[in-house]
Inverse folding.
């Protein structure tokens, strides 16, 4: 009977393995399904963060590209051009194969720190779920959110911080002398006086803060400036007359052909604040006129006595930054009369202390950089007069250091470093 009982009990256990296997497979498949959906959420979160980063960086870069820097923006209202740039860049980065749907309400600005604007992009997007949705309508989708803040980093006036460098520079030396803001005392004593008054600084030492932030006439942004070629003069060197600029060699040579090439193209070198640069003979007006002429006229009229830029900029009291830049017939990249944010006439140049130097004999020390729009160059005999609009200045802070690990630099045509400061 015992043997028979054992046999009966064993007969009652038949099929239990199949049940256990079926249950285990169900749990395994469920775990795999959850893992796949969890991975989809992680990927969606990463894609959303990438879109937020791109949007914030594009917004910050638009501030620099449009000239809306150097303390021209206040409050927390984002310019329309900034929002448009951020939205376009962010929505190119898909989340789960779809546009993240970044809108104007996703973009916020903070201009409370003069010269250091912040752009924050925050939004929520939908990451696709493949299996968990079958457990109920509540799980049909799940939102992933992302936030990024980018800064147009400006070291002007800083007492500490990383070395700052700039690239894509044009080989022009602009004196740290502001002829539009004259003072009875306290100006730059290295600069020629005008009407018995001193010229103000663009950047006040020793930390090179922006002397006159904001929009002209009280500020520097929007100033029109006629620059005169820096050749020998009655005082024996460059800097003897107001608004006299010099020419520099990035590779240490003094040749006119090198200068001309650097003017027409972007130098690949990063130049740190505090760098001593070799000046070249300022009487090389031929290469200068040809280089600037080819640059701003896109090669169509490099040798004219009066070369006018194919692109124009609108600066008036009703049109505060960002200024409107218009493409014209010579521009090969945009249709005629198109409103653009990039132009060959938008250049970054070097600001030096403004003291006199003998071209080709002395070096000049970088104390900052200036963003300007070259309107035209008039090349007549020994004179090369450049008409330009100042769009912003950037001081070195504590000048010094080298370009490399730990330094900050602008990218592409941006002379101000654009960086993410919060994620």
């Amino acid at each position: 009977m015992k043997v028979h009982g054992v046999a009966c009990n064993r007969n009652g256990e038949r099929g239990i393995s199949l049940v256990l296997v079926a249950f285990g497979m169900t749990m395994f498949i469920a775990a795999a399904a959850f893992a796949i959906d969890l991975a989809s959420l992680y990927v969606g979160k990463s894609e959303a963060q990438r879109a937020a980063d791109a949007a914030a960086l594009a917004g910050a870069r638009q501030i620099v590209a449009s000239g809306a820097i150097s303390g021209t923006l206040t409050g927390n209202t984002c310019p329309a051009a900034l929002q448009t740039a951020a939205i376009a860049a962010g929505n190119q980065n898909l989340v789960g194969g779809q546009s993240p749907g970044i809108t104007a309400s996703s973009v916020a600005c903070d201009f409370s720190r003069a010269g250091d604007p912040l752009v924050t992009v925050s939004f929520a997007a939908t990451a696709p779920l493949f299996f968990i949705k079958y457990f109920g309508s509540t799980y049909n989708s799940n939102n992933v959110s992302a936030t990024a803040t980018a800064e147009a980093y400006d070291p002007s006036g800083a007492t500490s911080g990383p070395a700052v460098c700039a690239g894509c520079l044009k080989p022009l030396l602009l004196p740290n002398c502001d002829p539009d803001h004259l003072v009875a005392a306290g100006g730059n004593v290295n600069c020629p006086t005008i009407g018995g008054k001193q010229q103000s600084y663009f950047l006040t030492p020793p930390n090179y803060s922006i002397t006159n932030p904001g929009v002209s006439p009280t500020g520097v942004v929007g100033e029109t400036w006629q620059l005169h070629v820096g050749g020998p003069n009655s005082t024996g060197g460059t800097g003897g007359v107001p608004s006299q600029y010099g020419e520099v060699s990035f590779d240490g040579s003094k040749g006119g052909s090198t200068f001309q090439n650097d003017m027409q193209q972007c130098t690949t070198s990063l130049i740190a604040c505090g760098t001593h640069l070799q000046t070249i003979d300022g009487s090389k007006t031929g290469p200068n006129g040809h280089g600037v002429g080819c640059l701003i006229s896109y090669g169509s009229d490099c040798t004219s006595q009066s070369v006018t830029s194919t692109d124009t900029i609108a600066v008036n009291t009703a049109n505060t930054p960002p200024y409107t830049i218009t493409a014209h017939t010579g521009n090969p990249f945009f249709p005629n009369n198109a409103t653009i944010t990039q132009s060959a006439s938008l250049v970054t140049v070097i600001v030096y202390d403004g003291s006199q130097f003998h071209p080709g004999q002395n070096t000049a020390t970088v104390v900052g950089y200036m963003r300007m729009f070259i309107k035209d160059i008039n090349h007549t005999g020994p004179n090369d007069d450049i008409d330009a609009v100042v769009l912003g200045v950037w001081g070195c802070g504590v000048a010094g250091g080298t370009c490399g690990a730990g330094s900050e630099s602008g990218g592409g045509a941006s002379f101000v470093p654009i960086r993410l400061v919060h994620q």
Q: What stands out?
A: The helical segments are 2-12, 16-65, 80-91, 256-264, 285-296. The mean pLDDT is 79. The chain is about 20% helix and 30% strand.
